[in-house]
Amino acid sequence: MISTSGFQPGTEPLAMGLPAPMHCLQAFEALGRSGSLVMAAGELRLTPSALSQSLALLEDRLGIQLVRSLTPQLELTAAGERYLGAVQRFFAQVRDGLYEHTAQARARLHVTAPQALSRMWLGPRLAGFLARHPRVDLVLTATDRYASLGAGGVDIALRMAGPEDGERTSIPLWCDDMVAAASPRLAEGTEGWSAARIAAHLPLIDHPVANWAQWLAGSASGGSAGRVVMRCNDLHLAIEAAVQSIGVAIAPKLLIADRVRRGELVVLSTHVLRARTYRAVIAQGQEQRPPVHAFLAWLQEQLPAQS
């Protein structure tokens, strides 16, 4: 017989493995993931005051300060950052267990990817993944910043190369070719032009990820960039500018494949520059989580016809 003497209704013994009521952990996870008191309160359908009280109760039970500042911007302590990761892994395991063994439960998957990849290639194909996995709630964050796994509950980060360490598994996806692309109007009469002639006689669009100096350096004809009419730090914007006949852009072949098929862009030269490898980066040991495994398998299926 298990004695329950000493426990008051509505409280949980620490021996149960939870340091505070579940709603406190939910409040902290939503707060850490969203980075906003107002957004987290709205998600949980609580008032900001009620959410703050749940956080205070969790800190009191733990005896640890988790949050240094709530407003105007959330700032977690070092202990808070570590504990957020533990709480997020706990909730992921609970959701995955239900998802795997019940027909009604849902799983959540948070993917980050560079903006151009998200907008031009991944986004237009996601309907296929969601149709196959209707119980996965997908969160896609388009950002060119290096997003660390666990920050904001990120499960998979799609990156071009990037830092690696022993705590993460890096899965190579594909290597792309950087090509010179222009609108059909701008490309008219350029058939057979060398890379050097293209760079010397056509207006150019430059971008740090795909710039003309790097592309020309590997060409047989050499040459240097001529009249650069536009410089931007957004690859998607550079490609859209090329579609609008502003200039010629260097772009990853995979990302412009749909626009080439639609006749919006033309590849001007056979010369290509090998780009860095795209990778899926996940926390070590997480690749067999049902939603993670499903997304990676689906992603691999999309590549042969595109690469």
UniProtKB/TrEMBL annotation:
Keyword Transcription appears in the UniProt entry: yes
By its UniProt entry, which PROSITE patterns does this protein fall under?
HTH_LYSR (PS50931)
**Any idea which UniProt keywords this protein has?**
DNA-binding, Transcription, Transcription regulation
Keyword hit for Transmembrane helix: no
HTH lysR-type domain: which residues? 25-77
- Transmembrane segment boundaries: none
Q: What's one Pfam family here? A: LysR_substrate
Q: Name the Gene Ontology molecular function terms of this record.
A: DNA-binding transcription factor activity; sequence-specific DNA binding
Biological process terms from the Gene Ontology for this record are: DNA-templated transcription
Highest taxon, organism lineage? Bacteria
Describe the family membership recorded for this protein in Swiss-Prot or TrEMBL. Belongs to the LysR transcriptional regulatory family.
Name-wise, this protein is LysR family transcriptional regulator
